[in-house]
Amino acid sequence: MIELALSAGVMVACLAGTIQFGYTFYIYNELVTAVGNGGRYAAMRTFRAAGSRDIEKGKAAIRNMVAYGDPRPAPDALPQAANLKPEQVQVDWVMDESGTRPVAINVSIVDYTVDAAFGMFRFTGKPAVEYPFVGRFAPSESEP
Amino acid sequence: MRVRRHNRERGFVLIAMSVAMVLMLAVMGLAFDFGRIYIARNEAQVFTDAAAMAAASKLDGTDVGLDRARQAVGRLPMRWNLGTRPFTGILVEFSPDKQSWARVTAPDNAVEITFLRAAGGPAVFTVPAHSVAATKPVRLVE
Questions:
Q1: What is the model's pTM?
Q2: Of A93, B22, B30, B81, which has the fewest CB atoms closer than 10 Å, so is most exposed?
């Protein structure tokens, strides 16, 4: 009985670790896919910059793309990873020397916590991607 | 009689746990090592997608354009292995006319195997990735 108790403790610890890391890796993989898709969408969409509100609307669409896989998600849309919210997606345009024309887009996950049953992991600043901006530059257009 | 039967059963837990531990290592390997392999594969694919687009966006049919394309790939800050390691050995190839497409390969992403190794698996598992982007319009084609 003593041997069983001791070895069962080790087995349970191993099983808990397996579940915890397995689930965390699964979620991280989902996040990598989500930021990759969002980055590619951002790189190819039209950059409208008639006003600062238009730039913010564009960023909101990119955040929605990362979080829900859709720039205009339905109210009941499911997140790309468990409990991922648009607020947990950071979108930063990299501008040229003049500061008006985008040359690249950075998309990353911030302040995202994985609740993996036996513990929690927090991701900030990763996963992250940078895509070159290859979309249409429309400085005088407004976001619809 | 009861004492004898008890003696014959001594050591059973040790044998059972030894067998179970090997199985447990294999299960841990499936979860931990395969998890890392899949993540590395995904990170490498996202990187080559971005790099191919960056390279294709710089092509203009000249050698200067090829240099600018290689520099654009080199400037990308993305990493792999849970975002901790830079990509190395990146291969950038172009269409013969130097302006139609760019292909980026990340061949050297070797994931160290931790648990499956103990259950007879390999020491490392390499997960290469490659992407091709066309220039007009700049888009991924593969």
A1: 0.88
A2: B22
